[in-house]
Amino acid sequence: MASREDIFTNKIFLCGALPLIKTIASDVPSLAKRFEHTHAVVQISACDPDAPDGKYATHFVINSGEWLVHADKVCDEEHTDIELEFKSVEQMNAFFKGSIGPKTLPKMKGIVKHAGTFVSFMMVLLKMSSLLTATDIPEDEDTQQLLVKCFFYLLTSGISVLNKQGHDKIREWTSKSPDRVYALAVNDHPEVAAFIRIKAGKSRAGRGEYKRAMPFFTLRFDSFKSALGILLGIDDMLESTKQGKLIMDGGPEFGAQFGDFLLTVGDYAK
User: Fold this and answer.
1) What is the model's pLDDT at position 58?
2) Burial profile 119-144: b = 16 or more Cβ within 10 angstroms, e = fewer
């Protein structure tokens, strides 16, 4: 039986990290090309006796390069072509935190019949792992952009996931909040943005700019490098603010609270 903290971590992987596979497979041309003629359902799951279906899972439906992500949803065995099945939530968490070895490797189903798709999918999975475990800022600007986008998506989705799972501090924050939108952005790059909307205990994470109204608070960076300096823990937040690398559009007290929750997600995911 998985602990509450293990479930928090697992839900962040299922609903925040694994959906990034679609982003990476779509944004990296060499990887996108590998799925141009693919028709398959691929699932990543963790067995748990307390789960409604006996496991928790996220699955992907891939049709000629088009991806549908079904986060935190189990696909039945009959319609699943490839599955990476971990024997427990704890095993899956350990694997995605970088503890890869005989004790954490999943059972792999369907890889003989769908060998090409399996290899391509693993290439994307390994690319995701290399991005999310980066400790230095990449030199290539395209990689910088992709990494910032992945972090933005993961962090905003992670806050919403923890709220829905009943994380005490985040739940308290959302339950007392009026209708507000908190956003992450990079100057001159509206394609690299994410937000979370909260109201009276409810939350919804979104990708791209929030266009229905001006966000209540935006954590904005002047460049991808500046964003990664903070996201990777390389730069000091106060110094970056003084230098204009980090701009808080809104009250700093709200920025501090929002920033704390971003760090909370990061702690679960690393």
Assistant:
1) 98
2) ebbebbbebbeebbebeebbeeeebb
